[in-house]
């Protein structure tokens, strides 16, 4: 699949992908070290040390994991370009990863994105503390996304909602909501053999109405920023499409925190830009992309780039 001059499609993973030591081999390069030092300065604490040494439970915290992944993914892309890596044909990110995609596309600079992600993480954590919520993956679902939405509406009350949070692939849907209602929905899914529910280790009900309190303040912060015209097409989570204008992009970014991530639709749209998918960051999206495009997987190449040897190999192959 590697062809000289071929423009890949680039994707960026979200919260949950983080782990201590991720990207440590990149630290041999001054550009990446300077990037992490800037993140430390902007945040006012030694994020770079937590990325290397953890501990894992600290790195998993929403207010640490989100800035860490943004710093890693955008730093990795900076190195990619410095080493002669080609500009991607299109970009997208999963949830938090959408902010990395917007930096790569030139919509946000790294400093603004990091400030925004820091606020996003703080607001999400505060919302999690207001209502006890959670998320669960439904693996090998024997139910369509629309039918799963209907089931959640049938079993949950408006005051304790459960919603579809991620349509990740034909093999993985994710639901999110108030913890007791979520457990009740998972029990029905299990008893009716509609899939295998697996509770996720997250702080709360992300991509659900329970994040409403976080959305208002985040929307105000996004509105204050001057978003730039994308230099690369960006496929957005909320729509699974490329927005027609910067105002539409801003609206979709504002809605993202309470809306489902339409990853399956996003992958379908991204495929129209190219058949080589590169995931920059710890691998979580590569298997989902393969599942989404399983009908013609022989025509698709999806792979992960995280450490220096992987970056060097792919850059050289595409020159």
Explain what this protein looks like in three dimensions.
With 319 residues, the chain is α/β, with parallel strands linked by helices. The chain folds into 2 domains: 9-128 and 210-318, Malonyl-Coenzyme A Acyl Carrier Protein, domain 2; 132-203, Alpha-Beta Plaits. 47% of the residues lie in helices and 14% in strands. The protein has 13 helices and 8 strands. It has helices at residues 30-43, 47-53, 56-59, 62-82, 97-104, 110-130, 145-155, 179-191, 212-224, 246-255, 263-270, 285-292, 308-318; strands at 9-12, 90-93, 133-139, 162-169, 172-178, 196-199, 276-280, 301-305. The strands form 2 sheets. A 4-stranded parallel beta sheet has the order 2-1-7-8, sandwiched between helices. Strand 7, helix 12 (285-292) and strand 8 form a beta-alpha-beta unit. Helix 1 packs antiparallel against helix 4 (62-82), helix 1 (30-43) crosses helix 6 (110-130) and helix 9 (212-224) runs antiparallel to helix 10. The model has no long low-confidence stretch (mean pLDDT 95).
């Amino acid at each position: 699949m590697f062809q000289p001059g071929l423009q890949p499609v680039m994707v960026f993973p979200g919260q949950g992908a983080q782990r201590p030591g991720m990207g440590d081999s990149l630290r041999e390069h001054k550009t990446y070290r300077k990037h992490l030092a800037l993140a430390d300065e902007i945040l006012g604490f030694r994020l770079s040390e937590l990325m290397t040494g953890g501990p894992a439970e600290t790195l998993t915290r929403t207010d640490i994991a989100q800035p860490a992944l943004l710093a890693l993914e955008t730093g990795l892309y900076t190195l990619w370009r410095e080493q002669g890596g080609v500009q991607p044909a299109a970009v997208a990110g999963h949830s938090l990863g959408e902010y990395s995609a917007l930096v790569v596309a030139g919509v946000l600079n790294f400093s603004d994105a990091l400030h925004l992600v820091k606020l996003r993480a703080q607001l999400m954590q505060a919302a999690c503390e207001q209502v006890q919520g959670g998320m669960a993956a439904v693996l090998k679902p024997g139910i369509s996304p629309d039918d799963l939405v209907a089931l959640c509406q049938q079993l949950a009350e408006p005051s304790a909602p459960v919603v579809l949070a991620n349509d990740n692939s034909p093999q993985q849907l994710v639901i999110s909501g108030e913890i007791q209602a979520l457990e009740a929905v998972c029990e029905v899914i299990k008893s009716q053999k509609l899939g295998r529910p697996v509770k996720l280790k997250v702080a709360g009900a992300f991509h659900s109405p329970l994040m409403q309190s976080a959305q208002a303040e985040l929307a105000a912060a996004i509105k204050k920023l001057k978003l730039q015209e994308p230099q690369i097409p960006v496929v957005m989570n909320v729509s699974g499409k490329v927005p027609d204008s910067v105002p539409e992009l801003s609206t979709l970014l504002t809605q993202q925190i309470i809306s489902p991530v339409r990853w399956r639709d996003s992958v379908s749209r991204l495929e129209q830009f190219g058949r080589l998918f590169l995931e920059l960051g710890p691998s979580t999206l590569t298997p989902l992309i393969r599942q989404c495009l399983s009908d013609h997987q022989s025509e698709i190449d999806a792979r992960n780039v995280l450490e220096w040897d992987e970056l060097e190999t792919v850059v050289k192959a595409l020159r």
